[in-house]
Every structure is written in structure tokens, then in C-alpha cells.
Amino acid sequence: MTLEERRAIARTMYTGEQIGGTLSFFVGLALLFWRRFGAPDFAFPVAWAAMTLGWALFAYVFVRRARFVRSEPTDPKA
């Protein structure tokens, strides 16, 4: 399997986590805007937690895809 084929496969991996992270980030951002216009006090910590979860999922997907692309079983130098 070539490197380009592995990259193509990696693009389709972990799409659920990627979508969940994006949605989590935007929900947190929406809560921050809502907090600015008079939301209850719970909105601020929940917003930061949602945004942190979104970034954590982004990092997780990035690392897992990079590990997959770099793990070439036929190349001993990988």
C-alpha cells in the first residue's frame, strides 16, 4: 500500500469523532455568546468544557490518523 493510499484511508477514519469535536466546539461558542446576553451562570463553565472537549477530540483524531499513516508494516524504517 502506498503512502497516498494510506492517506486516503486516513481521511475517512474517525469521522464521528471529528464531527463530534466540531459540534462540541460550536456548542461551546454558542453558550459563550448566550452568556454574554444574559444566560444563567452555568453557561460559562459548560461552554469552556465543551470547547475543551472539541479541541481534545481534534487532537485525538490528528494523532490517530498520523499514527495510521506512519505505521507501514512493510517498511522497517517507519
Helix-strand layout with pairing:
Elements: H1 3-11, H2 15-36, H3 43-70
Helix pairs in contact: 1-3, 2-3
What do these coordinates show?
The chain has helices spanning 3-11, 15-36, 43-70. It is mainly α. Helix 2 runs antiparallel to helix 3 (43-70). The chain has one domain (15-70).
- What fraction, in percent, of the residue positions are helical? over 70%
Class by SSE composition: mainly alpha
Helix-strand string: HHH
Whole-Å distance between the termini? Answer: 14 Å
Summed over residues and divided by their number, the pLDDT gives a mean of: 87
Strand content: under 5%
The biggest beta sheet is recorded as: none
Keywords summarizing the entry:
76% helix, 78 residues, transmembrane helix, mainly alpha
In short:
It is built from three helices and no strands.
